[in-house]
Amino acid sequence: MAPLDPKDIKLLALLQRNGQTPAQDLADQLGMSASQISRRRQRLESEGYITGTPCRLNPARLGLNVQAFIQVETRAQSNGTHQSIKRLVSTTPEIVAAWTLTGEADYIFRVYCTDLAALNRLVQDVLLPHDSIGRVHSQIVMDQVKDDTALPLPR
Predict the structure, then answer these.
(1) Which residues fall within 8 angstroms of residue 13, CB to CB, at 6 or more apart?
(2) How far apart are CA 126 and CA 116, in angstroms?
(3) Which intervals hold domain HTH asnC-type (predicted)?
(4) Where are the alpha helices (DSSP H) in the chain?
(5) What confidence score (pLDDT) does residue 149 get?
(6) What are phi and psi of 117, to 5 degrees?
(7) How far apart are CA 42 and CA 25, in angstroms?
(8) Cβ-proximal residues to 136 (8 Å cutoff; 6+ apart), any chain
(9) Confidence grade of residue 23 (pLDDT, cut at 50, 70, 90)
(10) Is residue 62 within 8 Å of 115, Cβ to Cβ?
(11) CB count, 10 Å around CB of 132?
(12) How far apart are CA 19 and CA 52, in angstroms?
């Protein structure tokens, strides 16, 4: 893998803002040709720097009016428990992100629901009855100050 040069860093920064920016627009901003941009982008993709170009949706326009973080403590610490939680996360569309943690909680889930009743159903009917889950603690998002997918890049 070749080290990233300043043009690579700038290209990654521009693509983080909008992954669908046409190669010619990127070329104009970076002082390169569109074909050079395309080759760099392909290299950055093949080397694993770029893993996809997702489309960001507006949750409110889709009726997803409640965002929450749910901390989960498992009943046991085992590979079976971890696999069970992974299956739960992959089959529950309301859970849009999940992380394992250190500290009191074993996992934290980011969830979107239509309303508080839907969030309550998720907790009461899906999470709490799950064999691997011992305790949940929900925090409802009141206001989102920042939600950026851009990573800090070397200067």
Answers:
(1) 150, 153
(2) 15
(3) 4-65
(4) 6-17, 23-30, 34-46, 79-91, 116-121
(5) 86
(6) -65, -40
(7) 16
(8) 70, 71, 72, 73, 123, 127, 128
(9) very high
(10) no
(11) 19
(12) 8
What are the structure tokens assigned to 10, written together?
A: 């700038």
Give me the amino acid identity at 6: P
Q: Running DSSP on this structure, what letter comes out for residue 54?
A: P
pLDDT attached to residue 103? 94
Contact in structure between 110 and 67 (CB atoms under 8 Å) = yes
Measure the CA–CA gap between 65 and 62, rounded to whole angstroms.
8
Q: Which residues contact 100 (CB under 8 A, 6 or more apart)?
A: 82, 106, 107
Secondary structure (3-state) at 73: strand
